[in-house]
Amino acid sequence: MKIMTVFGTRPEGIKMAPIIKELEKREGIESVICITAQHRQMLDPVLNIFNIKPDYDLNIFKPGQTLTEITTRALEGLEEVITKENPDVLLVQGDTTTVFAGALAAFYQKVKIGHVEAGLRSGNLYSPYPEEANRRLAGLLANFHFAPTERNRQNLLKEDYPDEKIFITGNTVIDALKYVIKEDYIFDIDLLNNLDYENKRVILITSHRSENIGKPMENIFTAIKDIMEKYEDVELVFPMHLNPKVREIANKVLTNNDRIHLIEPLDYAPMANLMAKAHLIVTDSGGLQEEGPTFGKPVLVVREETERPEGIEAGTAKLVGTKYENVFNELNLLLSNESEYNKMANAVNPYGDGKASERIVDILVNSGK
């Protein structure tokens, strides 16, 4: 059985890596790896961490690329690879433009499609943009829907997908963490090694969503800065996204405090180990909503809606929006009220047990029998 994995960004690479490792273990499976390199700079370190060597690298990244350019370059490159390899199944993961292009390219060649992390829905086609549309479009073409949770399965059933094509697996991001977390982890950045994680409360923030750029992001950063002035035992670490607009807002707002640390983006392993050491997380990222609870870290989600409501319902995460007063008040609550903090920190992670990759490969193997 020949199974091709296609991915192009850092989050896809992280979540696809455990599946690739599982495919490599199995007899009777030929694994073919094709990357689009939609995000070149942030994807390559993930390949190194997991020792993944792609069979095909389309290398489509160009500075300032548009969604149309990503889609067309990926489609053209994938057509050639799929025609040559003729896989039994092509796997895509998540909701990037590579995912949509990968599913469409496979559909054009009448190759079966497996959609990993299927069934996530925010309910707003333009938020997150373009991810909500990408995952819905990929779902329309998929033959296997690997849903992380029961909620994801229900979303697909409501859209009339056949139940026998939907499989609840857990999320492979939990599988990936076991490869990189170390108790005695040493960071390449001295600052992170020298932070006093025992006596200081370290807040980890990430923010990059296009819909937050502008006033929403200014609100978030201003609230965090004001919290820093209220609590002297708090340190802030912000690995800034490469987007120059994000950096401009961060450098304008998050200033004049030596406990605020604006650093370059972190590779996956140091980011995961920093999450494990942090006190709490503020993020508009999808992946961190899933990873934070694994470490028992409260996650404040600075978005107006989320396609990951399971964490909200379980109490591991809280959707706080982007208004100044909401972000300030929720941070203030967690920093001032130990019982509220513990309630979130001790909630059960709804995203799985770290065996999602095994389940996905088992399903694919059994489908070919």
What is the makeup of the main sheet? 7 strands, parallel
The helix fraction, in percent, is: 40-55%
Q: Ends: how far apart?
A: 10 Å
Rg over alpha carbons: 20 Å
Given as residue ranges, the uncertain stretches (5+ residues, pLDDT < 50) are none
Please state the structural category: alpha/beta
Question: Number of helical runs?
Answer: 16
- Give, in spatial order, the strands making up the sheet with the most strands: 3-2-1-4-5-6-7
Mean pLDDT metric: 95
Order of helices and strands: EHEHEHEHEHEHEHHEHEHEHEHEHEHHH
The percent range for strand residues is 15-25%
The total beta strand count reads 13
Shape: globular
Pfam families: Epimerase_2
Domain UDP-N-acetylglucosamine 2-epimerase: 21-364
GO molecular function, one term: UDP-N-acetylglucosamine 2-epimerase activity
Family: Belongs to the UDP-N-acetylglucosamine 2-epimerase family.
Explained architecture:
The chain has 369 residues and is an alpha/beta fold. It contains 16 helices and 13 strands. The strands form 2 sheets. A 7-stranded parallel sheet has the order 3-2-1-4-5-6-7, sandwiched between helices. It has a 6-stranded parallel sheet with strand order 10-9-8-11-12-13, sandwiched between helices. Helix 1 (10-25) runs parallel beside helix 2, helix 4 packs parallel to helix 5 (131-141) and helix 9 runs parallel beside helix 14. This is UDP-N-acetylglucosamine 2-epimerase (non-hydrolyzing). InterPro entries: UDP_GlcNAc_Epimerase_2_dom, WecB-like. Its EC number is 5.1.3.14.
